[in-house]
Amino acid sequence: MTADGQIGEEAGTTTSGWCDPRFSRVREVFDGHFAGGEELGAAFAVYLDGEPVVDLWGGVADRHTGRAWQEHTPALAYSCTKAVTATAGLLLAERGLLDVAAPVSDLWPEFGRRGKERITVEHLFTHQAGLPVIEEPVPVEEFEDHPAIAARLAAQEPIWEPGTAHGYHALTYGFLLGEVIRRVSGKSVGEIVAAEIAGPLGLELWLGAPDEVAARAARLSAGKRAKPKDAGGGGGAGASGAAGLSGAFEASGGSGAGELPAPAETDAGAGAPSTAARLPGQGPGDPIYEMAKASLDKDSLMNRALGNPPVHKLPGGGNHPVILRAGWPAMGVVTTARGLAGFYRELTAGRILRPETLRDAMRRRVHGPDRVLFIDSSFGLGYMRPALTFLTPARGAETAFGHTGMGGFLGLGDVEHGLAMGYTMNKMADAVSGSMRAHRLAEAVYDALT
């Protein structure tokens, strides 16, 4: 089970890499995903106490050309970016350049109007600012102009009173926190990551991919987007406890639905009886039901948060060179599984942030129903903590931190258990039924610990 060239026989897919014998079950799970047709191409890397114990890859990086997924194939890992951006901000806080408790307007005067005067930097880290949506459509010409997009948010009113609730700022998180970081440091988040994190530590991780990296990146393939007629399809989000809940979150874009989608063409509205009957969950009022219903409503807060800037207007969506190059601080990181796991290895070892900084950043600031996603989410200072939106095995329920990425990507660290994991792939999870691939792999890792 540890040799190179293992075969997923049903799919005829060769997987490569290595596993420590203690983690042979991880290899079985990884190969099983290919054998079952759940993967096109993927990679998974794990460090235990700083040492590599899992390093696997396989399949195809581009289904159109048949290009193989290689050892160093990177991929756009979507919202795994948020943890990297948070770390850049926390570096500045460690140096006394950024006060997390300070009003944003102290650093960004134009922001302090229209009900945003009391929004703090911590509110940005914890998705409490009430600004999950950019109200005016962002033109494609502005996609690489981060300050211009941030200025649009500075002109808006919050959707809810800041600090009173939290809701996933799927795209705006990066433009908001990124602008604060730029004003404090004079650098973009991508520049800080390159100069102070990825570069010095030799990580295969870029926030703003160079042309040669973009050229060899995996091409993402979107999963199905649910429609009313099949909204309750097999394995739906409410079908089987935690697995179903993970699938529902993936519908939101937090960890899976395909390329950042255009808002749903279908307006579920109140939901025709035939549609409502097939939605997962227990009916109106149930978070899973409400989340699935929102995913079908083009005007829902969820779809509005995911749909602007409108990545779907670019040919290939997230595969377009503009997106790979732009380095959006909420969803633009391009990385290998090894690079993502290496980021958490360095973070948990205290080589990026001081241990006390990380411990404080991991402390849960918010937990409970998410105003955008409906189901429970939990955040420290930018890092996801275990909740329905960040499912972790039982042994990591109080110790794991990290971030998912749309489609099924996962970056996870666990200081107490000495773990660091990174999972990348290119077959994006289906909209409602979702994917449990990363969770199964993480579960196999935790199960191997003695």
TrEMBL record:
Residues 250-264 have a biased composition (Low complexity). Residues 30-445 form the Beta-lactamase-related domain. Residues 231-240 have a biased composition (Gly residues). It holds the Pfam family Beta-lactamase. InterPro entries: Beta-lactam-related, Beta-lactam/transpept-like, Beta-lactamase/esterase. Transmembrane segments: none annotated. Residues 221-240, 250-290 are annotated as: Disordered. Coiled coil: none annotated. This is Esterase. It comes from Planobispora takensis.
